[in-house]
Amino acid sequence: MGKFIKFLFSLILLAVILYTVNDRYNLAAWFLASGNASQAGNEQTFVNETRTAMLDGVKEIELKYVGKVENMEWFTEDAIDMVYNMDDAATSSDYDYLQYKTNRVYAHIKGFGNALTVTYEFEYNETEKETAKVDETIKSLFGKWKIDKLSDYDKIKKIHDFIIKNASYDTYTQQYSAYDNLINKSSTCQGYMSLAYKMFTEAGIPCRIITGTGNGESHGWNIVKLNGKWFNIDCTWDDPLTTSGENIATYDYFLKSDKDFKDHSRDEEFNNEEFYGNYIMSKMSYKISY
């Protein structure tokens, strides 16, 4: 019995020593560098690997993370927000597009001390192949339009008019993606704003997706930068439902200032001093030339 107690005491002492050494010297990181763990786990590396997986349309991925975190919510909130905030000029499939292409993110976390294993499960409204089809179709359209030879205003109007004439609003609210809007020719406002974001971005027009309410209901639209100022543009509301089913392009919500952008209210993240400081809205709506 005495031997067992001594063994138990030694085991507890060893655990305390290992915990203390790991806390002070990050022993888990040393094991990682020594090849006893599978991959590096600093914050930016972890976020980059998560972003790459999401851009590739991966549905499940297991990642190692070594380091201290304040709480486990960092993996489900902060890390994913960091992914969405990365805007690489080489692609239009990240940033706002990726955020609204992703329906849900689930995280399963296990581990000991500073060494954790994080398994992500992703749900998307658009597959990798569908995104590739969207990119291919946009490239073809831009070639036909000779988009590079157009002025910025003409680019914006050409894209706005095309989206409206090509698609109609999905009154069954079952289609949400840019692919649905472009290829299936029907979507909710999410498909309109996502396709508009990708097309404007590919055309070299700075663009963001804005969410909030329209007539008191959940809604989304875009802002675009033209001649140094930002303007609101809502392709969904400029594509009215008609009794005949005919696609008619209107300009009631085309390149509008906030004061002229009626019945729209932004979510708080887009309606604060910092956001408006980064995206200075024009005080006057743009004078449209037909």
What features would you highlight for this structure?
290 residues, alpha+beta, 2 domains, five-stranded antiparallel beta sheet, three-stranded antiparallel beta sheet, 10 strands, 21% strand
Give structural notes:
- The chain is globular.
- The strands form three sheets. Strands 9-8-7-6-10 form a five-stranded antiparallel beta sheet, covered by helices on one side.
- A hairpin with a 2-residue loop joins strand 7 and strand 8.
- The protein is built from ten helices and ten strands.
- With 290 residues, it is of the alpha+beta class.
- It is 42% helix and 21% strand.
- The protein has two domains: 123 residues, no CATH class; 151 residues, Roll (C8orf32 fold), CATH 3.10.620.
Short description:
By secondary structure, the chain is an alpha+beta fold.
How many angstroms separate the termini?
94 Å
SSE class: alpha+beta
**Main CATH class of the largest domain:** Alpha Beta
The stretches of 5 or more residues where confidence is low (pLDDT under 50) are 6-11, 13-41
Q: What is the number of helices?
A: 10
- Largest beta sheet, briefly? 5 strands, antiparallel
User: And the CATH topology of the largest domain?
Assistant: C8orf32 fold
How much helix, percentage-wise, in residues?
40-55%
Give the ordered list of helices and strands. Answer: HHHEHHEEHHEHEHEEEEEH
Number of domains: 2
Number of DSSP-assigned strands = 10
Q: Strand arrangement, largest sheet?
A: 9-8-7-6-10
